Amino acid sequence: MSSSNNKTIAVIGSGLIGHSWAMVFASGGYSVKIYDNQPGRAAKAITEIRKQMEGLESAHMLRGELSAMEQLALLSSYDDLAEALEGAFFIQECVFEQLEVKQNIFQDIERLVGEDVILSSSTSCLVPSSVFSKVQNQRRCLISHPVNPPYHVKLVELVPHPETTDSVMDAAHAVMTKVGQVPVRLKKEINGFALNRVQAAIIAESWRLVEDGIISVKDIDLVMSEGLGMRYAFIGPMETMHLNAPEGLEDYMKRYGQGITKVLTSFGPVPDFFGDGAKSVTNEMCELIPNDQQHLSARKERRDQLLMGLSKLKQDH
């Protein structure tokens, strides 16, 4: 891969995830060319990014070693795909989460770039073998799945196509590390990747406990935010088990493995998230936080502020 000499990345799609990726890449010193097929939308994204960067700088939360002005100077907007792709060694696609749309854009991209350019898709539920099914050279393709919001939550899952080479995975890992993300590599593709599979398990059991009248929506969220989430913010479930027994993981399973198995076998089927029972769960949530834009926007802003603080704390430790 030619990443050692090239400092240009193209971001395809200027929505929320696209402009978040642009900010992340600029924070690492890359020149970022933002493309959107809607005229003027990429330029508008840069205007929004300017506001965010200036606010982050004022709060001393701007990522990277460059000032906001220096990072903004690295950004450029394009309405023409060929112009946006010219000179880029890494393409980060962020268009709609629709398979056909992504397949088509990668067909267009492949016709316009060289063989050594890395093609990366930002998707949370589409596997690489589907996204890149119409690409001729699938050896340079991978999924880079961020966590929303990517600027404050640094994990990114790197998921290979069955044909992806190790050198491409290494190059993508190096890019993500350079810009301050925390990349994890999946060894092969699987529906939901790793993060969403773990999240789905938590969602399913939380939903069941509320729907079955065991606990309230408010209190199941506290189970995570004031319980599991406190330690999981710094160490994962595997290390947690390893540290929670005098002689490590094997000892933990000797002590608690049967109990865990008993709990797991008591789980019910996948909940019906759309049936009559689901209405009571959503109603309870909306009583706590009404689902109008004013309340949701305020809570999202609070979430991002808390994540910024946590991110800084983790960085300092």
Automatic annotation (TrEMBL):
Keywords linked to the UniProt accession: Oxidoreductase
Record domain 3-hydroxyacyl-CoA dehydrogenase C-terminal: where: 192-258
Domain of life of the source: Eukaryota
GO biological process, one term: fatty acid metabolic process
Homology family: Belongs to the 3-hydroxyacyl-CoA dehydrogenase family.
MF term (GO), any: L-gulonate 3-dehydrogenase activity
Family annotation (Pfam families): 3HCDH, 3HCDH_N
Protein name per UniProt: Crystallin, lambda 1
Gene3D superfamilies: N-(1-d-carboxylethyl)-l-norvaline Dehydrogenase, domain 2, NAD(P)-binding Rossmann-like Domain
UniProt cross-references to InterPro entries, sorted A to Z: 3-OHacyl-CoA_DH_CS, 3-OHacyl-CoA_DH_NAD-bd, 3HC_DH_C, 6-PGluconate_DH-like_C_sf, 6PGD_dom2, NAD(P)-bd_dom_sf
Residue ranges occupied by any 3-hydroxyacyl-CoA dehydrogenase NAD binding domain in the UniProt entry: 8-188
